[in-house]
Amino acid sequence: MGLLDGAKSLIGDMVAAADRALEETGSGKLALSLAKFYPGGLAAFLDRLRETGHGDAVGSWLGSGERQTVPEAAIAACLPAGVTERLAYDLSVPQARVPTVLAEFLPAAVAGQSENGTLKPQPNFSTQVR
User: What Pfam families does its record include (predicted)?
Assistant: First the structure.
């Protein structure tokens, strides 16, 4: 195995470890991170996704049926750069992976933060990026 193969393996291991950490912390960590850093928190982020044509997917996350996906590029387009940077730090993932992580884990996080088709009350913090 060459040096490049070793580096690729190490990076892959780090990404897998970050994904496992997110899975273990559950929906609360992701929702809390959005509450801290996205202006208006999780509810505002979901509204932004709806505004950009992903209302059906967001609705599927709140309901009890099969969860639809939102493309990483669509999620990235809804995140201001400062928010992406802070989410990366808070979630312990590389900044470039934040949209991927949200695309993968946000549906379950929203489902875990909803009840009877509506989002439960969410915290609101003053450290949100404007």
Answer: YidB
24 to 15, 17, 63, 103: CA distances (angstroms): 14, 10, 23, 17
pLDDT-based confidence at residue 27 (cuts at 50, 70, 90): low
Burial 28-60 (b: 16+ CB within 10 A, else e): ebbbbbbbbbbeebbbbbbebbeeeebeebbeb
pTM: 0.77
| Helix, strand, coil in percent for the chain, rounding step 5 | 70, 5, 25
Q: Give residue-wise pLDDT tens across range 66-111.
A: 999 999 999 999 999 899 999 999 988 999 999 999 999 999 999 9
DSSP classification of residue 53: I
Residue type for 2, please?
G
Distances (CA, A) of 22 to 26, 44, 65, 84: 6, 22, 23, 16
pLDDT at 25 over 50: no
